[in-house]
Design brief:
The complex is a heterodimer of chains A (315) and B (467).
Chain A lengths: L1 H21 L6 H32 L2 E2 L7 E2 L3 H7 L2 H35 L3 H12 L2 H11 L6 H8 L14 H25 L4 H9 L4 H29 L3 H5 L12 H11 L3 H25 L9
Antiparallel strand pairs in A: 1-2
Helix pairs in contact in A: 4-8, 4-10, 5-8, 6-8, 8-10, 10-13, 12-13
Chain B lengths: L1 H22 L27 E7 L5 H14 L3 E7 L2 H14 L5 E4 L1 H9 L7 H7 L24 E6 L1 E6 H6 L4 H4 L10 H10 L1 E2 L15 E6 L15 H4 L23 H15 L6 H4 L4 H6 L3 E7 L3 H5 L6 E4 L11 E10 L6 H11 L2 H9 L4 E2 L2 H13 L5 H8 L3 E3 L6 H16 L7 H11 L3
Parallel strand pairs in B: 1-2, 1-3, 7-8, 10-12
Antiparallel strand pairs in B: 3-10, 4-10, 4-11, 5-8, 5-9, 6-7
Helix pairs in contact in B: 2-15, 15-16, 18-19
Classes of the chains: A mainly alpha (315), B alpha/beta (467).
Subcellular location (chain A): Cell membrane
Membrane topology (chain A): Multi-pass membrane protein
Keywords (chain A): Cell membrane, Membrane, Sugar transport, Transmembrane, Transmembrane helix, Transport
Amino acid sequence: MSAATADVATGTNASGAGATQGAGRRPRRSDLGVALLFILPALFGFVVFYLYPTFRGIYFSLTRYNVLGKPHFIGFGNYTKLFADPLFWNAMKVTVEYVVLNIVFQTILAVAIGVLMQRLTKSTAVRAVILLPFLISNVIAALLWFLMLDFQVGIINEMLAGLGLDRVTFFGGDATAIPTIAAVNVWRHMGYTALLVFAGLQTIPDYVYEAAAVDGSTEWRSFWRITLPLLRPILALVLVITVTGSFQIFDTVSVTTRGGPGSATRVIQYYIIQKGFQEGQFGYASAVSMILFIILAIIAVVQLRLLRAGESDLS
Amino acid sequence: MAGMRKKLGAVVIGLATMSLTLTACGGGGSDSSGGGGGSDGDAIDTSTATGEVNYWLWDSNQLPAYQKCADAFHTANPNVTVKISQFAWDDYWNKLTNGFVAGDAPDVFTDHLSKFGEFANQDQLVDLDPTLAKDGINVNQYQPGLADLWKSQDGKRYGLPKDFDTIGLFYNKKYVDDAGIKESDLANLAWNPQDGGTYEKVIAHLTMDTSGRRGDEPGFDKSKVKVYGLGLDGNSGGPNGQTQWSMYTGSTSPAWTATDKNPWGTHYNFDQPQFQTTITWFKSLIDKGYMPSVAAVTGQTESTIFGAGKYAMVTNGSWSTNALFDTKGIETGLAPTPIGPSGKRSSMYNGLADSIWIGSKNKPAAAKWVEYLASPDCQNIVGDAAIVFPAIPSATDKAIAAWKAKGIDVTPFTNQVTDKTTFLFPITDHASEIYNLMLPALDNVLSGKADVSSLTEVNNQINQLFQ
């Protein structure tokens, strides 16, 4: 999933570079044929697995459809229903809450780890250890944390009780459930994100830091004045990938709280699955998916504009 | 130029993002499937049965017994081979729905009362009556009431009963002994929604905080409970409360039922005072610290926590008997559900059945297998395995005997049937939607986030589904 986004992103940059280079040359028609031939397999996959289902999804969102029968076209009925649906708005609220917590902490930690790796050690062993949580399957990680944080038999609550403190309903409490799920996913993803950041840091030449050191800049100052600005294009990409992924939080909820207690963790993807697969309302579920898509598309475009992802301050 | 490129890049990424989010729920493109057999009004000729039958079930505990049935079936019918697949409950129904759409659902599958109505409405199941009549299968050979549950609103029969379950009160023998309570007393508990009766007294006495004070003693600290008198099974129980509160609401006075009629009611009764006062009492157990909060049990399996020694008693179904009795280091006992204001006990009565998918490409063998599953031959094998109660009374007796041989007296479950103190699992249309409406609403009531009267509004929403 994220790989596809990355491909598209780098693809854009590459074609951009090609266009500048080729400006001086006469365009050769035969190149186009070969280029199309090479693009064809990817294009085929994109059309069959992304574009066609996407348009079908848009169509279904305008129908009443239970998968087993035929879809009935109902215009924007699903959308009017959706805007009056308190569960949908609650799902949006809960999801946004999750995304904010998840992204803020994950990004800060990832940049910190990435920079520490860059400035302190280039050891591959350290890199491997940092990546370790990401190699555990999402479901296993979620279940392990769920067990450890269980109110009654979880080791962490046993420790709290042993210290004479009150037990905490990590996954079950209204105020704690979403932060707990966010924390589990920060733990799992920060290593991977840190590695992306670390890769981005490799593109910053050492002489910039050397020059800064000569001018008497501290590490702290170099971080704010050099590292962060030059990291911006990579951060933009990382943020688009992680925010998109974060909005689609599902697995952790599905294997732990199942949307409960009440509707405290009924995130938007879980709501879509519930409506579509449990209640057989595929038209309505598709409409919710469409709204999610529009939100994500807006966020992606706004993010890239704000962070000027196409440009680097290096050149 | 640079600006242009940037915009293009953003659009391309936006497009990719769009596809990523949308394809997650695009769904396969398929016209109305089903088709297949087509002749569902007619009898299937089981005498020509041959080839392979795919069979699904969700309970891994039952797999060995049904594999034995499949082997015996194959010995009796060498031309037919049954291939069994087991998927856990949470995946089972999604996989099944996907299978209906994709055209690769199993020929025969274990069906649940809360699901089969929707499947029948969507024309996914084979009407069994013509075939059963032709083959001379007696549909009255099962425990009373079970077979008719599987008749849809159109009068067609979509499943043959395989087993049934009722609810009982499991307890930790050591905790009960330590509290000075006699096991025989547990068989005669009574509850009421005002003060909880002897039932609540026992629950309170079995509850203990970390400093060893019992729930009915002065100074009991409900914020530091070591052992809860009564467990809570995962959540509030949604619209049926099968293992949570159905044994109380089923024994109220005046009698309460979830729907106007069952099966196929069209009006729910969560607004009635008997229901709401019972829920209020049930919630008071949480408030007093005798039962864990919804937040504390979210997502849990009750038998695991019982096994960890955190509960003195739990109300749970007969299907959990082995899970609750086989826990190492804990000696478990079984008592019937308490007697309510109606003067009687009560237990929800639920049963599973086997259904044939309309799209099965091998209906003769599928029908033959369903008939075998519902016959004494297979149900005796299942009974001897002591895992569930088979639907045929003689096989039920075998299960009772097999459990007795293991030292477990399961008659508190079966007496509910012989004493006629059971009521049926509520079967209506819109089951999943109602579940998804009622579960969070009742969670909130038990958590104190909403008043019990808020259920009246939820009840209205539910009833509007039937308009």
